Amino acid sequence: LGHGRSVHCQTIRMGFNSNIHIANALISMYCKCGDVKDALYIFKNLDGKDNVSWNSMIAGYAQHGLASQAIDLFEEMRQQCVEPDAITLLGVLSSCRHAGLVQEGRRYFNSMIKEHGIQPELDHYSCVIDLLGRAGLLEEARCFIENMPTRPNAIIWGSLLSSCRVHGSVWIGIEAAECRLLLEPECASTHVQLANLYASVGCWDDAARVRKLMKDKGIKTSPGFSWIEISNEVHRFRAEDCSNPKMIEIIAVLYSLVDHNKTLRYEPEMQEEEIDDALYI
């Protein structure tokens, strides 16, 4: 973010701050770096907004889970007679997905062809399937996939599989896993999710079978990385890595967040035993 701000200052000094393409890039940069406030300031003060301007701001809101702001901005875009495109609707659908707005997501998806003449692409279908899956509407999600005019890709089946694991729908999950493995037979995450799905309903033999299949094929998962920038310093985290000197403090904060979520009647996917395993592995 600091480097981005430096570049922004340089564009002002050079007199390029009113250039539509540079302004659009700055909006996107600030949104991706988590500074939605500055992105909105540039957007509001930009003359001659084009589709990229609107799309960048809507996508920024969607990225940070600000669904109501994304939808309000989309409606404002329509009121100003700016015709949305496929990327605009993708941002709106993504915001609905993150906020769990099922009815709104259905409405905007159906409006693509009926109102805007936009043919949905795989990314749009993927958003709707993920939206339905997160809401627990797994049968509807599966029917949605079956009625797609194009062949679903591995991302779509993976999305349905993840939702099945969360909601404990074993058989739809198995179907999704098998379909994804036909497209990506060496995908480690699919094997892991399938094993976890079996384990979540107590089918330990089947879970062990999938794990053994991974071992026999030599399929291994790659550790995931996360990072966050605080005071111009980037902190990196890797799955199952306890080398961070502040790990005890991090785990304490994690426990605090888990307890807080429980007061909100939200049951986290990560159980306390898993947190302990992550700490002492």
Automatic annotation (TrEMBL):
Source organism of this protein record: Prunus avium
Domain of life where this protein originates: Eukaryota
Repeat in keyword set: yes
Keywords assigned by UniProt, alphabetized: Repeat
Full protein name: Pentatricopeptide repeat-containing protein At2g37320-like
PPR repeat segments: 19-49, 50-84
GO MF annotations in UniProt: RNA binding
GO biological process: RNA modification
